[in-house]
């Protein structure tokens, strides 16, 4: 069975940035990853080739397969046959400051993961913890591509040493088209017993024995997707385009792809490149599928080192529960819109938010906006779409699905008032996310009725629900109230 998730590229997306959960309204009494401090006098990885000479779709890989393997220009390239384990490193001191010394000693190759062997020396009078590629700090890269692997979490007592292995996922490298390791960029965060930062490096570069002859001008990710290496993780590539879709101040968007996995879930992949003078932070927000807002806030954000590229992967299908797609008449995703914002390493804005749109197919680029109209005023409509059981099989919660259409003169915020929901005349606990809705946009207002509360009112199934009442609050950008309808469903 093919992999259901491209975990190697999107694990940070799924774990780090459940950003929409930050704005829940609930009757029952997340932050982006911390910003790394600037490294002082530390080297950072750079590309040796000219970024302006990138080949959109290389005709052959950087390393040619052995004579018994398939041709690189074919459609069934075996990634295991392409990867070379010949690159090695010389012993290299990566960090030597504040009584901490970290030395890269060897690059070895396991069956599934190349490993960088390191020795850590803690010559301070404090017990220290050393980490890399964690939720709080990750600036790792291979051959100029940011990677999510290279995990390290090692404790070293005062005055002691430790040996550790930092593993990089071969599957992740395969999907990035990396067939040999020319250099590794890695950063370390060191904390004391109080979890205070003792030392934080920037990206440190380790060159291998092939670095001087490696062709950095080849976009190996684009080569991999063009040669069907993604077939191990995805059933189909529904859309793929290369070009400079965005180019400002040394920041480029080089390719866009929409893929579907074996479970029918859709993913958006965006290839960004940083050719500025420092690390940047790229965030994606306000994501719209087929004209329907599926996330109204920041979904994901990632750092990109100087001279590096990052493939940002967004699981579009996971943004709303699977049963909802049928309720809103979405069988395929025909267009995707999203906003991109770029900040520097200190999280100061470099480029203002800009909207991007990807058209996949006009034939499936809409959704079903029919239903029972509950409110229509000031260009704002609220439509009842139905009651749906919770997607989690062990949950007794019930969801009231509403569609909010806004043609108001500015962005609005819609929320369900605290302590305002009743079912069959009994007050009911609930959870509901506030929704920010731009002019001309449509969003789902999902009111989740808590199963435990419903049972207290003798409601054990959806068929037991005769009516639902709730109070809605609609505000403008200045947070002034422009509407306070009380919605009644079922009478």
Give a description of the structure.
This protein has 491 residues and is mainly beta. The N terminus is likely disordered. The strands form six sheets. Strands 1, 17, 18, 20, 21, 22, 23, 24, 28 and 30 form a ten-stranded mixed β-sheet that branches. Strands 25, 26, 27, 29, 31, 32 and 33 form a seven-stranded antiparallel β-sheet that branches. It has six helices and 33 strands. A hairpin with a 5-residue loop joins strand 11 and strand 12. The relative contact order is 0.13.
Largest sheet: 10 strands, mixed
> Quaternary state, please?
single chain
Instruction: Estimate percent helicity.
Output: under 10%
Radius of gyration: 25 Å
- Coarse structural class: mainly beta
What is the mean predicted local confidence, pLDDT? 83
Termini separation (Å)?
48 Å
Shape category: elongated
Task: Please count the beta strands (DSSP E, at least 2 residues each).
Answer: 33
Strand content: 35-45%
- Poorly predicted runs are 1-23, 28-79
Q: Helix count?
A: 6
List keywords for this structure.
mainly beta; 491 residues; ten-stranded mixed β-sheet; seven-stranded antiparallel β-sheet; elongated; 6 helices
Topology record:
Blueprint: H1 7-16, E1 24-26, H2 79-82, E2 92-97, E3 100-109, E4 114-122, E5 128-132, E6 141-142, E7 145-146, E8 152-156, E9 161-167, H3 170-175, E10 183-186, E11 189-191, E12 197-200, E13 204-207, H4 220-226, E14 236-248, E15 251-260, E16 266-274, E17 280-289, E18 292-304, E19 309-315, H5 322-327, E20 335-344, E21 349-359, E22 372-377, E23 380-389, E24 398-406, E25 412-416, E26 422-423, E27 426-427, E28 430-433, E29 435-437, E30 442-449, H6 451-456, E31 468-475, E32 481-483, E33 486-489
Parallel strand pairs: 18-30
Antiparallel strand pairs: 1-28, 2-3, 3-4, 4-9, 5-8, 5-11, 6-7, 6-10, 10-13, 11-12, 14-15, 15-16, 16-19, 17-18, 17-20, 20-21, 22-23, 23-24, 24-30, 25-29, 25-31, 26-27, 26-31, 28-30, 31-32, 31-33
